[in-house]
Amino acid sequence: MTAPTTDRLAVPDEIARAVMLPSSYADLEGTVFPACDWLRRNLPVGLAQIDGYDPVWLLARHGDIKEALRDADLFHNADANIMLQPMAGDEYLRGMLDGTTKVLRNLSYMEPPEHTEYRRALKPVFEPGAVLKYADRFRRIARDAVDRLLDHDGECDFVATLSMQYPLTAVMETIGVPHEDYRKMLRWTQDTFGGDDPDWKRDEVETSPEAMAKQWHAAVQDFYEYFEVMRSDRLAQPNGDMTSDIVNSHTSSGELLPDIVQNHMAASIAIAGHDTTNSALSAGMLGLIRFPEQLERVRTDLSLAPGLVDESLRYATPAKHFMRNATRDVEFQGAPIKAMDRVMALFVSGNRDESVFPDPYRFDVTRRPNPHLSFSYGPHICLGLHMAKLEMRVLFEELLPRIGKVELAGEPRLKQSSFVSGLKSLPIRFTKA
Predict the structure, then answer these.
(1) What CA–CA distance (Å, rounded) separates 119 from 124?
(2) What is the pLDDT of residues 404-415, one digit of tens each?
(3) What gap in Å lies between CA 166 and CA 153, rounded to an integer?
(4) What 8-state DSSP symbol labels residue 28?
(5) What is the arithmetic mean of pLDDT over 416-422?
(6) pTM of the model as a whole
């Protein structure tokens, strides 16, 4: 990767470290958000270079992120890693994966025309009408989850008690994982997304870039072996769950998806389908605590629940970034980006761009429009967004009429990760409605 022709595009070291290092994300409000604010005001497209990492072009403004993500020919998803990690970690993956960092064969790691063909095949499984068949199931699970929260004597950790367990159960039931394997799925998900956090590190894994990549790779292998058995079973005996629908999807030529794609798509729902929703639900509760008038508004008018869902997603931004790489030399907003230069789309910044979201640090369930980037944008927008929104809406509809006042009972704690992260603890004190 080449350096810019002038140092006017160089991101100051302290700003670059604040948005690139996993440790920064344990302190969003004191470290990450101020750095993102600085970038949007002063250097919305700038080159960050810190020790141990490839040079990276940072995109901080909502409009620039959208422009890059909509052009899948110019900015590829996965010629390099889809997430930022140290060079040593990427090098470890290349050594394990025959020169590539593509750990999964899912849509996130694909480019057109392959991406277009497989997404078209899978789209019917995830359309709004298709996921509505799970609504009654989600509502039953949500009611049980709220019952368990209310059984606590007015105080609990919202993450451990509700926002982690509810989407885990909802997703695992939907894809057909038996209850006795839920804890295993949760552990592997934490291994996948939490390697940089000391609380989520495998006991046998050391703290180093290579070790974190090893944990990520090992977790994906665990998922692969598990879902290979399930995939084969659902091909032979489909039973109506989402895994059955995925593995029996057909391309435009009438063929089934390749075995590894079937497997990795089912595994991807297990990996990403609940942890991101957990982050959004817990951030939504934190927003309602910080802005109690918003809680009262939704509680008295549940038609605002969809707005609460979108604002929770914006407020949380579960996926803090996605990486792209340029496929050819281009001048992008005045920056001389070269072929194979790496680009970091900072969703965590774009979702608080004051030019798009007035008073962006306010939690507002009536925010309209709310074009958040929490599901990405363009051809690679998250295929599971309708399922995630349905899960969240149902949970809020069941929870909010049954609780009264809610306040913090301790200090919230955030996971240490620059990729997928959120609250890992949210102590609350509450009254029943």
Answers:
(1) 9
(2) 999 999 999 999
(3) 19
(4) I
(5) 93
(6) 0.95
